[in-house]
Structures are given as C-alpha cells and as structure tokens.
Write a structure and sequence with these properties.
Length: about 200
C-alpha cells in the first residue's frame, strides 16, 4: 500500500514538472504544449511507459525508492518573445515546481505523525531529488538547457551535440549510482523543513 502511495506521489511530481515547463513556455509566447493538449495536469497526457512505469519499478526494486520521468512537454523556442529568457524560465520551471512541492510535503511531514509523516517525508524526498537531479547539466536534463543558453555560441553548439547520447549517459549514471550524492543532501532538506514545521506549529 505504501509503495502505491509513493507511486502516486511520483506520478504527481513528474506531471507538475512537465506541466510547469509547458506553462512557462506559454507565458513566454509559445503555445505548442497547449495546442497539443499537453498543458494539463491530467497524468494520462504526460505518462511515459518506460520513464513513468518501468524505470520507477526497477528503481523501487533495486534501491527502494521509485524515481522516473514523464514525456517531455513539446516546446518551440523560436516562438519565445525573448529566446534566452524563455529558455532559462522553461528550463527552471519544472525544478522550481518540484522544489515547492518538496517544501510543502516536508512541512506536512513535520505536522503529522507515524505512517503519514513517513509517506509525506518520502514524497518530499522524491520532489527534491527530481528538482536537483534535473538541474544537472547533462543533456537532455533541464540544467543543460539553462547552461546551453549561457555558454558562448560556439561552445553551446558542441555542447548541444551531446544530447543524442545524453539519455544513455543519464541512464548509465543512474544505475551505476553516480547520483548518490543527491540522497543525503535531499534528505537533509526534508529533515530541515519538517523540523521547522514541527517546532513552529
């Protein structure tokens, strides 16, 4: 039952991540996600068979915590009113949404007890992991979108070429434990925010 609840929170977390990308793009003048029916919180529009089902299952079995992703929301940067500003805002939007969700779930964890507290603690942890994992500057993660805009144009062109191999690099690093450094950091954030809620309320 607990795994089912965590899977629900994972789906919620990846959906708000992608929805936030689409909303930021729409705000910057690109309505591609809206026209394709992806500017919605309906999970059916965002779920990916591998990233939203298979990968979370494998990681839940191997490391005990489900983690995954949804289908990327389509954007057309050429429609942004300000290309650089639009790319940075869209790249940061999903991570910002997950950080806010992680913060809220941490507070709820500090205000509840027993199993409920543990479930919200893990929900917060999942959101913080999604936030900071996606900020890593490896294509196609969000951090690479932001970095690509900030790099000199010649360097950016070379950097963008890595994207064709990026997903394989990310998968390899995930299963090799290359991102384990995020675990203690995200856990400390959860504990810090939940402690604030517990002490003040």
């Amino acid at each position: 039952m607990e795994n089912f609840i965590l899977f629900f929170f994972l789906i919620f977390s990846v959906v708000i991540h992608e929805y936030s990308h689409g909303l930021a793009a729409y705000y910057n003048g690109d309505d591609t996600a809206h026209l394709m029916g992806r500017l919605t919180l309906n999970p059916i529009a965002h779920l990916d068979p591998i990233g939203s089902v298979l990968l979370p299952f494998l990681l839940a079995v191997t490391i005990g915590v489900p983690f995954g992703y949804a289908k990327p929301v389509p954007i057309n940067p050429l429609r942004f009113r300000d290309y650089q500003k639009g790319m940075i805002m869209v790249g940061a939007a999903g991570c910002t949404a997950n950080f806010i969700a992680g913060f809220i779930f941490s507070l709820i964890s500090g205000l509840t007890k027993g199993v409920s507290s543990q479930v919200f603690e893990l929900a917060a942890f999942i959101n913080f992991i999604l936030c900071f994992f996606n900020l890593i500057p490896i294509p196609p993660l969000d951090g690479s979108r932001i970095l690509s805009v900030l790099l000199p144009s010649r360097v950016s062109i070379v950097f963008d070429k890595i994207e064709r191999y990026g997903l394989f690099i990310v998968y390899a690093l995930v299963f090799a434990g290359g991102f384990k450094f995020l675990v203690p950091f995200c856990s400390s954030l959860v504990n810090h925010f939940s402690a604030i809620a517990h002490l003040n309320f």
